[in-house]
């Protein structure tokens, strides 16, 4: 809770994964992947309820083992390849409301961002609350600036992003950011009314690129394991 505002953390983790089978509970440095996000929420000073939304009984058991609440198995209609995260969040909010558990804010923590810490969670909450806005999203600076990128049309180069300047020295290019998928923090009322995480009033929470690795394939997983080992966080 923050200033009498109750905060729900939702960790979406369906069983199906095309790239890595059962990716959300694969072993990363001695712990299942999803455990890192559960721990980030459980260690937070402000999170009141940590929920894993899954359609998979094995993921449910892992979630419970690591201290999350798993009060339902997610319906198949929002567990397929085309299911949207916003629908998963709304389903969880509605389910808890029927159980007489209501919250002011909801934080979406994707399990594929294991390097996001409880400090990031708390800092993001404090940032949003102090600004008085409805939503916050985490980003990191891009490595390759779109100003120097081109498409090809009719065998001619066309800029992706216009930039007015005398040269294209990297040090003088405008900073550009990308969603890193680690944190989406919203007022519950915004989620239910607008059915979106990000709008024109959303404020940023900037994260380091090293903490922004999103596990999509086995190479990403090995990189995360290497970073955790360098940080002394490997259990094996």
UniProtKB/TrEMBL annotation:
List, in alphabetical order, the Gene Ontology terms for molecular function in this entry.
nucleotidyltransferase activity
A Pfam family of this chain: CTP_transf_3
Q: Which UniProt keywords apply?
A: Nucleotidyltransferase, Transferase
Name this protein carries in UniProt: Acylneuraminate cytidylyltransferase family protein
What organism is listed for this UniProt entry? Clostridium brassicae
């Amino acid at each position: 809770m923050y200033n009498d505002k109750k905060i729900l953390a939702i960790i979406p983790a369906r069983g199906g994964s095309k790239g890595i089978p059962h990716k959300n509970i694969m072993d990363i440095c001695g712990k299942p992947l999803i455990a890192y996000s559960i721990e980030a929420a459980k260690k937070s000073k402000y999170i009141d309820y940590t929920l894993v939304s899954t359609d998979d009984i094995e993921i449910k058991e892992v979630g419970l083992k690591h201290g999350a609440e798993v009060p339902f198995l997610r319906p198949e209609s929002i567990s397929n390849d085309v299911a949207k995260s916003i629908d998963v969040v709304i389903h969880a909010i509605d389910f808890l409301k029927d159980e007489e558990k209501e919250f002011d804010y909801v934080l979406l923590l994707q399990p594929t961002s294991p390097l996001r810490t409880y400090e990031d969670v708390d800092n993001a909450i404090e940032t949003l609350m102090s600004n008085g806005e409805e939503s916050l999203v985490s980003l990191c600076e891009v490595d390759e600036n779109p100003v120097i990128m081109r498409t090809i049309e009719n065998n001619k180069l066309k800029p992706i992003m216009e930039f007015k300047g005398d040269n294209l020295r990297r040090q003088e290019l405008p900073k550009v950011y990308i969603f890193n998928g680690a944190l989406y923090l919203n007022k519950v009322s915004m989620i239910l009314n607008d059915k979106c995480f990000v709008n024109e009033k959303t404020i940023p929470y900037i994260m380091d690129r090293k903490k922004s690795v999103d596990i999509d394939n086995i190479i990403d997983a090995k990189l995360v394991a290497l970073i955790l080992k360098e940080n002394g966080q490997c259990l094996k």
